[in-house]
Protein 1
Amino acid sequence: MKTLLKNIRECSLCKEHLTPNPVIQVSKKSKIIIIGQAPGTKVHASGIPWNDASGRQLRKWLDVTDEQFYDETLFGIVPMGFCYPGKGKTGDLPPRKECAPQWHQPLFDNMNEIDLVLLIGMYAQKYYLKENAKKTLTETVSNFEEYLPKYFVLPHPSPRNRFWLQKNGWFEDSVVPILRNRVKKVL
C-alpha cells in the first residue's frame, strides 16, 4: 500500500491537461470509502480532501467530527479523479477519466476492512453501478436501498446543489438519518 500511495501521489498521467496534485486519503484499514468526483480549487491548493463547503456538508450528513472524518482508518477518500480537473462553463470540469481505471482496483485490492462505499454524484455512481444506475441522479438516490449494503448513493453535497436539496426534501428528511445510522454502525 505504501508504494501504491507513493505512485498515486506522484502520478502525472494527465499532466498535458491539468496541473497534477493528486489528493487521496486511504489506509489498508479504511472502513468507509468515499468516492466523489474530483478535488475543487480549495482542496487542490490545500491537499486536504473535502476541505471546503462541500466537505462540511458531507460531514454534517454523516454526523461525524473532523477528527473522525480525517482518520484514514475510518474513512478512505478515493475520488474518481485525484486532481482538480479545471474550470468549465458552469463549474468544474468532470473528473479525468484516467484515474479510476488506473488506480481504483489496485487500491481496493489492498483494503480488506471496507464495510461501506459512499458513491457521491453521478460520475461515481455510473462507474460503479454501471447498468444498475438509474437514468438520473435523483432516481438513483431515491432508490438507494437497492444498492445496500455495499454502496450508499448520495448527491454531491456542494452548495451548488442547494436547489436539488430544496426540491428533494425527502433526501435530508428520510435518507440522511438512514445514512447516519449506517455510518454509526460501521464506526
Protein 2
Amino acid sequence: MATRICVLGDVHGNELALEAALMAIAPERPDLIVVTGDLVLHGPRPAAVVRRIRELEQTGGAIVVQGNTDIAVADLDFSAAFPWLEEVSPQDRSAAEWAHDALADDELDWLRRLPAERRVHLGKHMVLVCHASPGSQTSGLPADLDPSVTVERVTRTDARVIACGHTHATDVRELGRKLICNPGSCGYSFDGDPGAGWAMLSMDGTEPRAELFRASYDAQLVATELSERGLPGDVYRAATVRTGRSIR
C-alpha cells in the first residue's frame, strides 16, 4: 500500500486559502500532513490560521516547522528573520507587529517552540521537512539558484526527499539522489497562480514521487480584507494575493 504525505506551507495568515487546501486534501486521506512554516505574516487572519494548524497538529498528528517570518512575528527579531536585508522596511515591521499583537500569548509561545526541521519516513526513504533548505530557515532553493550553491545546500542532509517552501513558487525536481518538493505558497503565491498550493509525496514503488496541486478560493475577498486593514503596504499585499505575483 502506498504511503502518502501531504505538504503545504507559506500560509501567511490567509485562512481562506488554508481551508480551501485542506478541503481539497481531505478526500485524499493522506497518512500525514506536514507544514513547512511561514504561517502568519502579511495575511489578515493570523490567529485563525494558528488555531487551525494547531488543531491539525493536535488531532491529526500534523508535523509543523517554523519559517523565518514566524520568527519575525513571534519575537520581532528582524535580523534573524531577514538576514539578507540591510534594513527591514517599515511596511514589513508594521505587518509583523500587527500579527504579533493579533496572537494570544500561548499562540506566540507555540510559534516560538516550533522546530526548524523534522524528519519523517516515506516508505524506506527519509523526508526532511524544513522551511528554506537543510540547515537554514532563510537560504532557499529557488529554481534559478546557481547549481553549485544548490548542490551545497541539498547535500547538508542524508534525506532522500527535501520538503520545503520559502520561495513561494512550485518546484518538483530530482537533483542526483535528492527529490526537492516545494508546493509553492498556500496563501501568498509569487508564481502567477493565486490558488492555494499543496503537494502530495507518495511511495508506491521503490522511489518517491511528488505531485503538485492548487485549490481555488476567493482571493479577491482576502485582498479586499487586506486593503481594508489599512497597514502600510497592504495595497501591495492585496495585489499579491489577488494576482499570485509578488507586487511591491
Protein 3
Amino acid sequence: MARFPMIKNHELLSQKVYRIIKRDIIQGKLSSDTRLYEEKIAEQMNISRTPVREALRSLSAEGFVKLIPNIGIVVNHISPKDLLDILNIRQELETYAICLAAQKINEKDIDNLNVIIQQMERAVFTNNTLLFNNLNLEYHRNIIFISNNNKLIEICDNLHQQSERWIKSIVVKERLMHSLQEHVEIYNSLKKKDVDGAKKAMSIHISNIIKNIFKTDLKERTEQ
C-alpha cells in the first residue's frame, strides 16, 4: 500500500487528505482496485479517521473511489466504456465552453495560449509525451477558464481528472504532431474570435482523441 505523508500545516484536514489521495489516484500511484484503509491512512498522516472519512466520501461522490460491500473503499476502475462516456461528455461541454471563450477572450488570454503552444512544440520535437500531456491539459483548462462559467469549469475539471488517469498511460508519440496541429487550429480560431471555427476545431480535436484511443471497433470494446 502506498504511504501517505504526515499533515503538518493548518489547511482544513479533510481537504488536504482529499487533495493528496486524489493526486495519487490521478498520477497512478494508487492504481485501480487498490483498497484504502481509513485507519492506516489516518495513522500515516498523523490525524484522526474523521477527516479521512470525509475525504473519501468526497472522492466517492466524484467517482474516484467506491464502496464495495464486504470489502471496503477501493480506487474506482475506469473501463473503456467509462472513458468513452467521459470523452463524449467532454466533447459536448468543451465545444460549448469554447463558444463562450471565443466571445470573451482578450489579448492576455491569447498570449497565454500562444506560450503553451510554443511549449507543446518543444515537447513534440523532443518526444516528451508526459510534458505534452500536461500542457494539453493546461491548454484545455485555460480555454474553459476563459469561458467564465464557474459550474462549467468545475464539471470539466472533474472530467479532465477522470479521463487523464487513463489517457496518460496510452499517449502515442505518432499522435503528438497531429494533436499539436489541432491545438494550433483551435488557437487560430480563438485569436480571430471565430466562434463557429473554434467550435468545429474543438469538436474535431476531441473526436480524434476518441478515434486514437479506440482504434478497434467501439461497440465491441465498450460492451466488454
Protein 4
Amino acid sequence: MEALPGISAQEIARARRPLEAAWTLPPAAYVRADIHRLEAERILRRSWAPLARVDQLAAPGDYVAMELAGQPVLVVHGLDGEFRVMANVCRHRAAPVAEGAGRRKLFTCPYHAWSYDTEGRLAAAPLMDGVADFAREDCRLTQFRSEVWQGFVMANLDPQAEPFGPQVEPLARAFEAFDIAGMVVARTLIYDSGWNWKVLVENFMEAYHHLAAHAQTLEPGFHARDSIVFDSDGPWSILHMPAAAVDAERPRLVQGLPEQQAGALFAAAAFPHFMFALHGDGMAWYQVLPLAGDRFTLKIHLCVPRYVLDLEGADHILAELEQVTAAIHAEDIVVNDLVWKGLNAPTTGQGRLAPLERSIWQMNQWWLAKMGA
C-alpha cells in the first residue's frame, strides 16, 4: 500500500481492517496541510458535489456564483432550459464574470466588458477587431461535467468522471417515497466551520453520539442503540434511525410515506460530503464548501414539499423546523469543536470504531482507496 504524508503503513492497515477490528483514520488525515492538498487533488476535484437545487434556479437566466474545490464556477439555468456549470473565469484576463446570485441573459466581465451568454459562449469582446487569428468560438467559458439528480444540480471538475446517478442508484431507490426531486428549499442556515470537513461528515453519519451530545434532543426519540447502517456497494452510506415510538395519528408534511419511514430519521451521504437528512416533514441538505484543510462553509438548506409553502401557517411550520435544526446543530458544533481540539493535540492517535459507526468505516475505506492508500 502507498504511504501518505505523516500516515504510517500500520495506521492505514488498522483503518483497513473489518469493522469489528477497525480503527479510525489517524489525526494526520484531518490536520496535515499536505494531506489536504493531496485530498483536494485526488478527491475534491474528482468527485461529484451538489451545488444548487433546481428550484433555486427556477427561471431561465437564474445563476449562482460559488467555488468548487478552489475553482470559481457559475451554476446557470440557460435560456435554452439546460442547467450548466461553467468556469467563472473570463477567457481574456481571468477575472470573474459574475458574483452572488441573480438572473441575467449575459455575463459581462467587469474588467474589460467581455460578455458571455447563458451557455458560456462569447457574445461580445470590445475593440478586438484586427487581432490576428481571434476566434470567438474558441473563447467559451470552460464547461464542467454536470447532471441533475433528484432535483440537485451536481458537478464534477474531472472530465473523465463516471456519471453520478448510476453510482448512487440505491439512494434514489431507498428514498423514492419521499419524492426528493419535488422538494423545494424553504430556509437556509449558514455556518462558518473551523474543522476539517471529514469531522462533520463523521458526526452526521452516526447515531452513537445521541447518547451524550443529543441526550435531551435526539436520543429520547431516536435511540442510538436502534440505529442501523445499510450495506453499501458504492460511494454512499445510509443511516436509519427508527423512531422510539411512532405516532400514527400525527400528520406528516411528506405525504404517502410507508409507516416504517414516516416516523424515522435517515441520514444519507454520497462521498465525499454530499449529505442529506430525511424525515416525515422534509429534508435537511447539508451543503459543505471546503475552503481549506481546517475550515469550510456549511449551508443547511431546509427543504419541504412545494405545497407546504402555500399552507396557512407555513411561516410557523418553517420557523419550527429551523429552530429544531439550529438547536441540533448547535449541539454538534460543541462536540465537533472538542474533536478538532483533540485531533490537533500532539499525543493523539487512532481510536477504535464502535459497531454503531459502520458509516464512518464505509467512508474511511472509500477515502483510503481514493487517496491511493
